[in-house]
Amino acid sequence: MSTEEFASVRYIVDDVQAAVDFYTTHFGFTVRMNRAPGFADVVRGPLRLLLSGPGSSGSLATPPGTPAGRNRIHLAVEDLDAEIKRLDQAGVPFLGEAVSGPGGRQILVTDPAGNLIEIFEPAQDQAQ
Q: Domains (ranges, CATH) in the chain?
């Protein structure tokens, strides 16, 4: 898959290798490039996650003190309860409880640097 076929998101992380391990172990990402401690590139389907560590160009372009905000990557799953159980058994901490809305159910976790990840199960009548 060429880079034009990916939707890329950059996350600024404190420890590139810890982030690579987190995303590959818990969420099925595969490594395209790992130049830890400065940078890594992991993918899951069409999502390309750029992990920029201290001193990387992506990190340097972000002014110190810039808050992470509430933006997050969105990972769709078929069975949220099974994912919650799997992640809980692996020691991944959750931010609150699962919530339901008109489009489905979701829960939030953070990566080792505090970046948000939304685990989402669409409502039965919703397409992913």
A: 3-61+69-122 (3.10.180.10)
